[in-house]
Amino acid sequence: MALLTAGCTEKGHSDKASGFKDKASACVKALRIVDLVPDPKKAEDYEKKGKELRELSKSVRDRDAAKAIRQVAHQYGMARAEAARDFGRVAVWVKSTVTNVKTLKKVCS
User: Fold this and answer.
1) Residue 34 CB neighbour total at 10 angstroms
2) 5 contact partners, CB below 8 Å, separation of at least 6
3) Are 35 and 79 in contact (CB under 8 A)?
4) Suppose 79 and one of 11, 13, 43, 99 were both cysteines; which one would form an S-S bond, judging by CB atoms 3.0 to 4.6 Å apart?
5) Distance CA 75, CA 68 (A)
6) Are residues 88 and 61 in contact, defined by beta-carbon separation less than 8 angstroms?
7) CA–CA separation, 90 vs 56, rounded Å?
8) Is the sign of the CA dihedral 10, 2, 18, 64 positive or negative?
9) 20-36, pLDDT tens digit by residue?
10) Residue 17 pLDDT > 50, yes or no?
11) pTM over 0.70
12) Residues 13, 17, 19, 22, CA torsion sign
């Protein structure tokens, strides 16, 4: 009987049906969304990607993966504001974004 109920939640629904993603599938999806080399000229695209990543982070069970996805989403959300500023601010944004993407990759490996 333990084999039959091992993948079920308290309500008798499988984890898959509950809408929560496991770490591996969330990481695959997040890494498909992110650009490994951020380009501040794509600010509008990053806003969309940031929203998509935020939504994804809400459905991830693993706290470290959810946090890493949220951090990239936050950086992407700042893209338009940073692109409108001087070059020094853009360089800081790119560096921070690369750092957060590396953290996401590390958490996901």
Assistant:
1) 21
2) none
3) no
4) 43
5) 11
6) no
7) 26
8) positive
9) 678 999 999 999 999 87
10) no
11) yes
12) positive
